[in-house]
Write a structure and sequence with these properties.
By secondary structure, the protein is an all-beta fold. The protein has no helices and 13 strands. The chain folds into two domains: 1-39, no CATH class; 43-155, Immunoglobulin-like. The protein starts with 6 loop residues before the first strand and ends in a 5-residue tail after the last strand.
Length: 160
């Protein structure tokens, strides 16, 4: 069974801190055990945008605690222009509130003819820890529209 056929079992649980979901994912042949994950609260009014952590790294692997820079791409689409996002409003990490980009640039990363926003974050500021499987990017456009993107990854360098 491949990753595409991974089974997922979710159950909503209210935490004292808010409406985060506690989900249990069973990743089939990738791992032979269930991984509990606390998902970040969602912003129901935010536009959902496509992001990619470490573009070109498949499957995406993140090493928590590592010094260095983590690239995250915010893709433009048919109805979304990443150039209209206020880079000062962007936050990225385990809940989407942790790290500010240390620098940004614009480039057509996916060769679709649209300019995408490349953001670079200090890995140690993201709040990503061993066992996390998802990170969140949040921000706002210059027009005041909230945006939110999520990307999945696996952690490395965490022992066995």
């Amino acid at each position: 069974m491949g990753a595409c056929n991974a089974r997922r079992d979710e159950s909503a649980v209210r935490r004292q801190a808010g409406v985060a979901l506690l989900a249990t994912f069973f990743l089939g042949s990738l791992v032979n055990y269930a991984i509990p994950v606390v998902l970040a609260d969602t912003n129901p009014g935010a536009r959902v945008v496509r992001i990619d952590i470490k573009p070109g790294d498949e499957p995406t692997t993140v090493t928590p605690g590592r010094r260095g820079v983590l690239p995250v791409v915010l893709y433009s689409g048919a109805t979304f222009d990443a150039a209209k996002v206020d880079a000062k409003s962007i936050r990225f990490g385990a809940t989407g509130t942790e790290a500010q980009p240390m620098r940004t640039s614009m480039e057509d990363v996916d060769a679709d003819g649209r300019i995408d926003l490349i953001t670079m974050f200090r890995m140690q500021q993201t709040g990503i820890e061993c066992g996390h499987t998802m990170a969140v990017l949040r921000g706002r456009t210059y027009d005041g529209e909230d945006i939110e993107g999520r990307a999945v990854f696996k952690t490395a360098g965490c022992g066995s």
